[in-house]
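Q: Can someone sanity-check these two? First one:
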Amino acid sequence: MDPRAEPPADEKQRFYAAVEPRWKEVATALAADRPPEWEGYRFEAEIVQTAVAGPFRVQVSFGDRVSNRQRGGAPKEIVDKVAELQMAYAVFWQPMAWKKVVIEQIWDREKRSWTFETRWEY
């Protein structure tokens, strides 16, 4: 199979199912690291290429969703997991290698529980 060719839909579904628990692990680790006074969090990770088709670094921001207070970044273990996920997407199929991911922890007042939202930019 041509590595540039789009994988079949069933292969993509299997890939998404395989990485979903890893994304949940990242979101849960961020929630555990969130200061108790924060009202949820907003985590952004952007892939910054350091060379053409070469290595990259992950630039992150991690802050309170409501007050916009920022932390000096996320723990290294979490950033490393995000980098591993980005590499998994790129290896599976390069066009799926996202450039930015935003994970938010949001308090649902009606349900009185936390929810997570994740968005990717390609």
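And here is the second, same format, sequence then tokens:
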Amino acid sequence: MRARSIFALIAALMPVVYCGGLAFHFIEVGGSVEGATAIGLGPTILGLTVVGLLFFIPIFFKLSRLLGGPRSPRSDDHGPDEPAAEDKTPMVDAMIARYMAQRSREASVAPSAPPAVANYGRSPKAQGFGRRPR
């Protein structure tokens, strides 16, 4: 995995080197920065410099990820107002108890016969998944 990150870092450096090389080439064409601006290459050099600096942003992120070390797992992360994993156990038990109490109440109040559905001369609907019968 480390080799993959290093390869990604090298690949991210390629546009920076390309833009920098073009900027230096245009400076050499003019002889100096003043000479390059005199022949009209000033905006080109400035643009290449800005674009090259923008290409540095992903390099900083890749480098910080490479040198930052392994990240902690997401399951252990919790905010300051969220309880830790040990504190969640009573909440889970209370949720299960409420569910079981509601289920027993619904079972005791269940109707004896299902309500009748008017069919109006049509064939009964097929229950379940799959293709419709023809």
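A (reply): Looked at the second one. The radius of gyration is 34 Å. The helical segments are 2-30, 33-38, 42-54, 56-67, 85-108.
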